[in-house]
Design brief:
The protein has 329 residues and is an all-beta fold. The protein has three domains: 10-84, no CATH class; 90-156, no CATH class; 189-328, Jelly Rolls (Sandwich), CATH 2.60.120. 0% of the residues lie in helices and 39% in strands. It is built from no helices and 27 strands. The strands form eight sheets. It has a five-stranded antiparallel β-sheet with strand order 18-15-27-21-24, with no helix packed on it. Strands 1-7-3-4 form a four-stranded antiparallel β-sheet, with no helix packed on it. The two termini are 73 Å apart.
Amino acid sequence: MSYIGNAPISAAFLTDTFSGTGSQTAFTMTVAPANTSSIIVAVTGVLQDPSTYSVSGTTLTFSAAPPSGTSNISVRYLGIPASGVTTTAYRTVTEFTATSGQTSFSVPSYTVGYIDVYRNGVMLGTADFTATTGTTVVLASGATTGDLIRTESFYVSSVLNAIPATAGSVSSTYLVDASVTQAKLSTNVAGNGPAFSACASGSQALTQSTWNKVNFGTEIFDTNNNFASSRFTPTVAGYYQISSNINFGSGASVTDSRVSLYKNGSVYVSGTAIGATNSNGTPFTGLAYANGSTDYFEIYAYTGTASTTLYGDAGGPYTTFQGVLVRSA
C-alpha cells in the first residue's frame, strides 16, 4: 500500500495469556508491573476493573477465580519497569458506579489540569465537570443510577535546576567539599603532604668523637605541624626526602666531620665522612620511609676535632634541616 509521507509505525504491547480453570486465582506473569494500573486485564473478552485483582511482583491474583477456558485470560502491559528501579505510575485510572443524582467523586491525588473524565465511555468536556481540588471531581449534572464514571489522571514531571552543558557551570558553591586533602588523593600521589624547613638559631658545642643531636631552634616553615623540638614526626605515611647541612664555623679546622639521619633514636642513613680541614659545610641528603604515626627523624653530627662548635644563626642558611613527602605509602 502506498502512503503520502512516512509509512505508519506500529508497536505491539507485551501480552500474557492464561487459561482459566474455574478455581485458580493466582497466575505468574512474564514481568512485574509497577501496579494494577500498569496492566489491562480481560477475562473472556471483558475488561476487568483493577479492584478485582492485585499484583505482587510477577504474581497476578484475582479476587474470584476466572471461569474455565482456553487462553481466556489476557494481560496487556502498558509499560515494563526497569529492573531494580523505583517506578512511578504516569497514568492512574479510577472507576465508579454512580448512584442516582451523584455529582461528587473522590479520586486519587491528581495535578489540576491533568485529568480526564468519562461517563459511560464518553469523554466529558471541561464544561461538564469541575476538577480543581486535586482529590475530587464534581459533575455539572447529576449521574443516573448505574452510570460508569471513569477518571484518568496523569503524573506530571519536570527537570528543575538542571546544570547547563557549558564550561564553568559548576563551581565550588555546589560541591559538598571542594578541598583536596591527602586522604582524597589516590595511592602514591604526594599532593599536599608534610613539608618543613628549620635551622639552628645559635652556636652549639659538640663533643669530640661522638654523635651529637643537632638543635634546630628556628622553624622556617612547617606545613603540617610535624616539626617540634628538633624532631620531624610526619603524620602521613610515605617516603620522605630528608636533607641537612651542618656548618662547623667559618675558618674552623675540623677533621672527620659527618652528618647522619637518625630514625626513632638510631642511625638510619649516614653521610660521607669529610676529612679535610676548614669543613664549613657538611651536607646530607637521603630518602626515608615513615609510617605516619610513630616514626620520627633527627639529625646528628660527628666531629673528630676537640672543642668544635657548630655554627648557627636564626633565619640563615648555615645549619639546616629539611624534609618533604615525595611519595605516599
